[in-house]
Amino acid sequence: MTCQPTIVPPPEAVDIAALRERYLHERDKRVMREATNQYVRATGEFEDVYAQDPHTAFQPRESISEDLDVAILGAGWTGLLAAYHLKNAGITNFRNIDHSGDWGGVWYWNRYPGLQCDNDAYCYLPLLEETGFMPTKKFSAGYEIYDYFKLIVKKFNLGGAALFQTLVTGLRWDDSIQRWHVTTDRGDDIRARHVIMANGLLNIPKLPGIPGIAEFKGKMFHTSRWDYEYTGGNNRDPQLDKLADKRVAIIGTGATSVQAVPYLGKYTKQLYVLQRTPSTVDKRNNPSTDPEWVQTLQPGWQQERKKNFHRQAMEGIPTPEPDLICDIWTEITRNLAEEFTAEGWPALTAEQAVARREQMDYRVMERLRARVDGLVQDKDTANALKPWYRYLCKRPASNDDFYPTFNRPNVKLIDVSATRGVECMTEKGFIANGVEYEIDCMIFASGFEVSSDLDRRWGIDVIEGRNGKSLYDHWRDGYTTLHGIMTRGFPNMYFTGYVQSALNASTTEQMDLHDRQIAYIIKELNHRGVTAAEPSQEAQDAWVQHMRETAYDASAFTRECTPSYFNGESAEKPRSYAGDVYGPGWYAYETVLKNWRDGGNLDGLETTNV
Fold first, then answer.
1. pTM for the structure as a whole
2. Which domains does the chain have, with CATH numbers?
């Protein structure tokens, strides 16, 4: 089926200047100088809200003291793909270490009702051709993704040495043995030659720093620690029947809440949805996988689909190429391509192309606001649910049941933008806009430590490289790396994801590229008898300079955005979770890494042979 453009208002019907002013006004209502400090780490009496594992009973074990080739910190997608590529490189003496009870990362912890992938699963789920697995729908359910983890582990025999229910507390480089001491809350001392930081972005939940939170006598939990014992049901059959006599509040209207709210609205006696900033919520359009389509796929289809997704969603310059993804992530490019086709593909300057994309951005957002009016009956509620910001200022969402849920008599939206959040909690409930609401349960859909400082984001007490230098101090004033993967002073330590790297539309593709590069480096170091490697000062300086010289400056865009994890929730110092983004783009970055590998001499690394 051909992917069609969406119907948006014509350019003359959209007053961009007026909308820009409205966007800034709405942003200013919500910006807090505390930025990410408005959230706190769950410690002391609140630790149980986050730290306990509701999915797997604790299993005692003896402490481990051992020498290891590679310690992989994490068992989510990044950790799993690291294990996969290490094994393909002939490296087998490794362990994945994770504080969860099993493989899965965010798909282990998050089991809230309605959980689905919000990216095209045919792109998001890695290794589909290698495993022969095919998602049952365009957007896979959370439990299907969790099951797929187990399938990969079993098929490629990756899981035998994994350490679960184990929290890494310290990483200390020991020059005398050319290894990292990996210490844990289980009393382990693992002496690893190499350490891969595969701990991901969404691993430390955030707790809103609400005054009086300790006074509340009811039930509290975070969506990533969903308590089905309390709510009833389970993640595969979320009939939350135990909430029939409960008054429940949920804080947040981001991607998680958009999926959970329809279930809470269906089953609770009373639901309060506490919103500071609304999300864009488009229709879901989640068809089952067509077996006839599957039969047409040729070898290499998944990589081609991923490339199509990235070009449509991230590169921003329309081409005649068909849109294979056809959802909210690719809408702007798809609509522009339709208009450019009608115009005979005009020759535009870069500035003109950017202006046309910005115009389409405003037109698409007008469409999304109109969608609210068409689905929410109460006008005041509908107005409060409308998103007033640029597309991608806040993570786009899609759901067919979120807006209709607010037509239920037991569901009330409470907009707290005027007070920049809930004012306080009390023994019986919470106060918002000067009114106390009594509740039985408070659910935090408040997200994760994405744009906060590294020590909060990673949750590891101590990371010390050569001469006892802290990595947190090392990067206090900015990232310094070679290719975003290694940094001087921290031998044999490898970073994944979003530090001085390019961005891909699919997070798993992003992590896969880094894991492949890291497996290559470790294999080559082992082959050459190298015990320690780190970037030279010259190579690291050159990469940092190249990053700075080629960086795409998005600060004006992020500064004008409403608070979200994309901009660190700060007006004065907008900080992307991505650290530094490689301006030339994903494919240029891929070429840099390939050329480095093809050179065959580990250019820019200082090595030690003992």
1. 0.93
2. 31-60+208-234+241-279+414-447 (3.50.50.60), 65-204+451-608 (3.50.50.60)
